[in-house]
């Protein structure tokens, strides 16, 4: 059996997030841009930065669209169709109010905890610099793109990445693949409500590893969404919560100019 056929579900679940990092690596090595300081000081290549964000949206979007039949088959959006045996107890993964509530609460927690700067404090205790865990780009688009058309274009693709592409890609990888694969060799047929302790812990560990400079907020947020996942058993609730948190965070960043948060 061809590799693609044998591992098509794994490829479908991993590919969107892999594209995010692959595109970032290509730009870093072949089309680098520089961002210095919180206020996007002169020296950044604004067009390359815009191209990076747009390329990620386009690449991830194309992959998600191509594999969408597999996603819908694995996590159905409606009942009344022939489902895999693993999903008989949860005939639909259509999101509900728990996704909204979790997303709003998660945003409040993320923003509040990040402002405490716990990671920076701990690093100072052990004699390390505050940026030892890395920093986000912290680019201020209102200084970077002076023309309204360029600013509008950047904000459009930045929010598309933040609110649509990243939540779908990250949740597909994390809850569709990683948490189930860690817990069972027969993970393809495992309902989200049946994931064991090792898989649940893997979700939090991934969150911390992917957001080291926001480790405490990430640990709380990813654990919160996992609790909601176990309660509802609905994959698309996790995507909805992720999208709402990121939308609130993006609006908050633009309003308060806390650019280091996105």
TrEMBL record:
One of its GO terms (molecular function) is endopeptidase activity. Keywords: Hydrolase, Membrane, Protease, Transmembrane, Transmembrane helix. InterPro entries: Rce1/LyrA-like_dom (IPR003675). The chain crosses the membrane at residues 9-27, 47-72, 97-118, 150-169. One of its GO terms (biological process) is proteolysis. Residues 155-248 form the CAAX prenyl protease 2/Lysostaphin resistance protein A-like domain. This is CAAX amino terminal protease self-immunity. It comes from Stieleria marina.
